[in-house]
Amino acid sequence: MLKKTKDQGAEETRQAFRFADELGPAKIIHIYEPTTALKAVVVVDNVAAGPSIGGVRMAPDATTEECFRLARAMTLKNAAAGLPHGGGKSVILADSKMPPSEKNKLIRAFACSIRDLVDYIPGPDMGTDERAMGIVKDEIGRAVGLPPEIGGIPLDEIGATGFGVSVAAEVAEDFCDLALKGARIAIQGFGSVGRHAARFLGEKGAVVVAVSDSRGSLADPDGLDIAALTALKQDGRSVTEHTQGTQADGDALIDADCDIWIPAARPDVITMQNVSRLRAKLVIQGANIPVTAEAENYLHEQGVLSIPDFIANAGGVICGAVEYRGGTQTTAMQAIEEKIRSNTRSVLQSSRESGLAPRQAAEDLALTRVRAAMALRRWS
Length: 380
Known about the structure:
2 domains; seven-stranded mixed sheet; five-stranded mixed sheet; 17% strand
């Protein structure tokens, strides 16, 4: 059985390398540890600007290709944010809802397996958290997104990524026919990113009318009680257990009558098969690679403004980079505000002037910075 898994991993690696270019990936590593049943993939994409930072995702159905695409998104994200880091990503092929003792054992085994991969700095991602990064740090001495008890900035607690999404939304007011005050928002994925985006946007006067999680969706045109929904999620329950609003399956969120649609969960949730169902004027990508390239082009052609993931959701990695260098929570939030505000405006202004889709304008910005860093390195 282990040999078959290795063969499958090798084939997935060959498929992932179909996307290889002059930027990377530098390394694709498959990890198999039979004692703990650990199966994982690590992709280090590009380290021209410095050691790669990227989250550790835990999901049973992740693939090598997905890991590579996420690592490339991190290369672009870190470059666009002006961080001295390249992009990387890892996925642990397991159910994140396993008992805590089993999960901690698996995280520790993963950390031991990447001890010598010194050009990769792990951080939290979907399915992992600050506690998991504390375990990684204990084993190998490097991680970001640590618990505050060991010097970390609690990025999930303060909502670093969700805060950045709200900053991007504020900048977008000048580039589409939309005001945040009174804007109706739908959020796909009411986790650590989605719930904080809801909170920060609510403070700016927006109204969250629909949310979803892995168990379904909830909608109310008059606005949902974000504090109550957050309390449900913190108690391990679903948004569909709230008594307010109309319940439906998770896919129904795509049809929500809203002004702003925020994907904040899994990759590729908006494709050419469902993009025509979106009714929003503005899409802000809180998740990593949540919209396919074809769907983004469709949105641009239809006049729907879509802010790319590596511009809008960079708050978490900016916070992690500040933490890694001993910065404070205040310094991190200031850096997120400054970098995301500046980059979002730069990308949207470039898109307006050139007619290019925002993703193309954003990639041009990030690739220029990556290539400039590469030009300073000695490559064999």
